[in-house]
Amino acid sequence: MSNVVLLALTGLGLGALYFLIASGLSLIFGLADVLNFAHGLFLAVGAYGTWWSSTHLGFPFVPAVAFGVVAGTATAVLVETLLIRPLYRRTIEQVLVTVGLSLAGVALLQAAFGADPLTFPRPEWATGTTRILGAIVPNDRFLLIGAAVVVLVAIQVFLRRTRFGLIVRAGVEDRTMVTALGINVRTAFTLVFAIGGAAAALAGALAGVYFGNVSPGQGTSLLIFAFIVVVIGGMGSVTGSAVAAVLVGLVQQFTSFYAAAGVGEASVVLLLAVVLLARPGGLAGRAA
């Protein structure tokens, strides 16, 4: 029983981390129709920004995370303004530019901070554990779950209760009509990139807490699972991504524990294949 509880909570924590990354991907694709392969760069900038502000500026954990989130958000805005904006509706060029930027970002981070993983400054309470139904659960899992819930609620409130949120939702349905009404969709695009960058940067900071270190390629490796989550959940659906992230996290944790090493990652790919065969549009998409 204790193993089941531990695996369930750690699976939810891992799924929460995937959702924080996937939520931004889903928003960006849903409105701007951009498959942003440089999204992992925003995560890495957030992680290194948090690490740098904590170790060099002496910031406590929360201000350090805020610093990292601001750095990741600023990076996302610059990428959208300088590189993505001239390439809207040019899918091949978008893929080439974002893939190239992702590779260049990893190289720049290696040049600045080195290729070796750096020990991440975790707060003392995050290194502790809590006993639940006989299972000893690391506290950082609860931090991830709580952050994911807050981000999900914040995105839903933004989409449903704010003017820009309504523009985003309308743009997802019919971008041409929104533009014809005289609404500046480009500003909405930039705002969505900023939100996605902030969520990814927060994921980077919390990934440092989860793994205990930060490395230049961390964002790229996590981005693979985030893309799987987005596809399973349905392209452009934040709620679908949340459900898919929970499924992916739980499946990966349980299969990794009860099966051989490496089966957890393979089971996620198998889950992706099963969902796409049953519902090509994803869980929140239209059935075939």
Structure commentary:
The protein is mainly alpha-helical and about 290 residues long. It has a domain at about 20-220. The protein contains 11 helices and 4 strands. The strands form 2 sheets. Strands 1-4 form a two-stranded antiparallel ribbon. Strands 2-3 form a two-stranded antiparallel sheet. Helix 1 packs antiparallel against helix 8 (about 185-210). The longest helix has about 30 residues, at about 1-30. The termini are far apart. The model has no long low-confidence stretch (mean pLDDT about 85).
Provide a brief overview of the structure.
Keywords: Amino-acid transport, Cell membrane, Membrane, Transmembrane, Transmembrane helix, Transport. Helix content is 75%, strand content 4%. It contains 11 helices and 4 strands, in the order ααααβββααααβααα.
Helical coverage, percent range: over 70%
Count of individual beta strands: 4
Total helical segments: 11
The string of secondary-structure elements, in order, is HHHHEEEHHHHEHHH
Strand order in the sheet with the most strands: 1-4
- Report the average pLDDT across residues: 86
User: Based on CA inertia axes, which overall geometry fits?
Assistant: globular
Strand content: under 5%
User: Cα-atom Rg, whole angstroms?
Assistant: 19 Å
Structural class: mainly alpha
- Termini gap: 39 Å
